[in-house]
């Protein structure tokens, strides 16, 4: 149980680093939806969706390659140095090209040139801190990692509050005063990206000492090995971007232009109600990847992975049920404007999809450990094809709008999860307790969907609360020995 305890501690620490910034970030959903119409919020969502793809390209799998070679190579300084030099110069090249052709890029994306300029610099600063952040995780410095992550989001949040909520009042109170010179009517989208840019710049400044170290080394042979290992991660990342964010872009392109951005705004706002599952999944992912690599040499590693996956499913199933049951309560805190609630029907679907993605993360460890990351790219590509195909069929052919996008997301992540499991059984057998895992998974999904989609049960919460109590008791009854053992060891 020592390995499991180590993972638990690491996940909790990174959970704090992830949960606090995400909670602060999600508070912005309430601010944005309170102060912006669905159309403006939808436009921000679409712009951010495009940026996700550029983020993936700028990292080109180097983050995962860094972890792999950091634990594999004896000369760790050489790994850090080579990865840093690579990201630095690729980012400089990106800046030169995109700034030179920003007008063309703005035309292709149908986005204001000024917003494109903001996006370019945000992407560059974010890329330059990829290796420094990864180094903190590899060296097990979660406190410093947490402080830097949290400071970025706090600055972003404070600037959003000031620029969107306070500055307009100051400017309107004194039209000829000092603050009016900084206020531009109808510039809400620009202010959101300006706040993001300043926060990204601040984080880069915190990491500048990393770039001013003497004697930077660049091992070409090591670099080529890292690229070979990482390039499938790039394609997997692009496929992930398709699965996770392309639906917003497709909705904006395939729906009626008069309604598209408003629909994307409602969809994106209600999408965020899946906050807790996203937080759980993200914290788990941050902790699990370096841990899996560090345990790879142990003889009992497969059993450790199987146990970890089972308890991830158990805890995730409980979170899924609780969040879905109380989704109508959460919306009053996260998305307060009723005009956005039209998309509430997608909430359980998105939570289930994010849970499937978390399970896939656990199941995908095998191809990373045997250095076959290309398999992950193929699996993600299958998910991407499913995403594109089902979005087209359900949005265009069946006119299901964002409900179709949510269904496509579940199908994509569910397929990836199943494919990874069956391929892993042959390439890297892990003794998963599939009967228990499937029982917990489908029981929570069934109870959650019944409590949400049956109107009379949804209105009273009685069924949902009883379902949570019953499911919790079922978990305790089946896992009593392990639960008590963990409590005693603490």
UniProtKB/TrEMBL annotation:
Matching Pfam families, A to Z? Polysacc_synt
Alphabetical UniProt keywords:
Cell membrane, Membrane, Transmembrane, Transmembrane helix
Task: Please report the record's description of how this protein sits within the membrane.
Answer: Multi-pass membrane protein
Places the protein is found: Cell membrane
Q: Reply yes or no: does the keyword Transmembrane helix apply.
A: yes
User: For this UniProt entry, which segments traverse the membrane?
Assistant: 12-33, 39-58, 79-100, 115-134, 146-167, 187-210, 222-242, 262-280, 311-334, 346-367, 374-395, 401-424, 436-454, 460-476
Kindly give the PANTHER family that the UniProt entry links to this protein: O-ANTIGEN TRANSPORTER-RELATED, PST FAMILY PREDICTED COLANIC ACID TRANSPORTER
Name assigned to this protein: Oligosaccharide flippase family protein
Source organism of this protein record: Flavobacterium bernardetii
């Amino acid at each position: 149980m020592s390995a499991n305890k180590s993972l638990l501690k690491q996940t909790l620490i990174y959970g704090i680093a992830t949960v606090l910034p995400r909670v602060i970030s999600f508070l912005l959903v309430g601010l944005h939806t309170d102060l912006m119409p669905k159309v403006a919020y939808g436009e921000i969502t679409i712009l951010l969706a495009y940026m996700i793809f550029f983020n993936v390209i700028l990292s080109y799998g180097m983050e995962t390659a860094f972890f792999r070679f950091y634990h594999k190579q004896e000369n760790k300084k050489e790994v850090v140095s080579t990865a840093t030099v690579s990201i630095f110069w690729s980012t400089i090249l990106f800046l030169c090209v995109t700034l030179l052709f920003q007008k063309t890029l703005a035309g292709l994306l149908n986005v204001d040139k000024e917003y494109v300029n903001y996006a370019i610099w945000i992407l560059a600063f974010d890329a330059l801190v990829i290796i420094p952040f990864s180094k903190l995780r590899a060296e097990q410095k979660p406190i410093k990692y947490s402080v830097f992550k949290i400071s970025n989001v706090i600055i972003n949040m404070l600037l959003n509050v000031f620029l969107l909520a306070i500055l307009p009042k100051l400017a309107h109170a004194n039209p000829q005063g000092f603050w009016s010179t900084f206020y531009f009517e109808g510039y809400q989208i620009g202010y959101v990206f300006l706040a993001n840019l300043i926060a990204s710049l601040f984080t880069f400044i915190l990491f500048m000492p990393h770039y001013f170290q003497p004697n930077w080394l660049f091992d070409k042979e090591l670099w080529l090995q890292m690229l070979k290992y990482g390039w499938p991660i790039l394609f997997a990342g692009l496929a992930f971007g398709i699965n996770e964010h392309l639906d917003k872009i497709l909705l904006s392109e395939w729906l009626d232009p008069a309604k598209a951005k408003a629909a994307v705004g409602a969809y994106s706002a209600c999408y965020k109600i899946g906050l807790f599952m996203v937080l759980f999944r993200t914290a788990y992912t941050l902790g699990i990847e370096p841990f899996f690599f560090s345990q790879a040499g142990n003889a009992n590693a497969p059993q450790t992975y199987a146990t970890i996956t089972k308890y991830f499913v158990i805890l995730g199933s409980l979170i899924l049920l609780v969040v879905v049951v109380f989704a109508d309560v959460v919306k009053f805190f996260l998305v307060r404007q009723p005009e956005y609630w039209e998309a509430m029907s997608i909430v359980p679907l998105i939570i289930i999809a994010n849970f499937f993605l978390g399970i896939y993360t656990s199941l995908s460890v095998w191809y990373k450990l045997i250095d076959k990351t290309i398999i992950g790219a193929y699996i993600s590509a299958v998910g991407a094809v499913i995403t594109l195909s089902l979005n087209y069929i359900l949005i265009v052919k069946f006119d299901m709008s964002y409900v179709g996008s949510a269904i496509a997301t579940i199908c994509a992540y569910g397929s990836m999860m199943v494919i990874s499991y069956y391929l892993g059984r042959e390439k890297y057998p892990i003794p998963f307790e599939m009967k228990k895992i499937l029982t917990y998974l489908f029981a929570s999904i069934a109870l959650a969907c019944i409590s949400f989609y049956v109107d009379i049960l949804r209105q009273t919460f009685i069924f949902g609360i009883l379902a949570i109590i019953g499911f919790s008791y079922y978990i305790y009854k089946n896992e009593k020995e392990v639960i008590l053992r963990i409590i005693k060891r603490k």
